[in-house]
Amino acid sequence: MHLFCLHHAGGTTASFAGWRFDGITVTKTGYRGRNFASFGAAADSIAGRVQETRSPRIALYGHSMGAVLAFEVALRLQQSGTVVHVFLAAARPPSGFLQATHDAGAAAAVEPLAAVWADTLLADPGVTGQLSERALEVLQEDLALLGGYEGRPPARQLEVPATVLVGRDDPVVPVAESVRWADWCATEPPVVEAGRGHLFHVGNPEVMRLVERTLAGQH
Question: 167: domain range?
Answer without folding.
Answer: 2-95+153-216
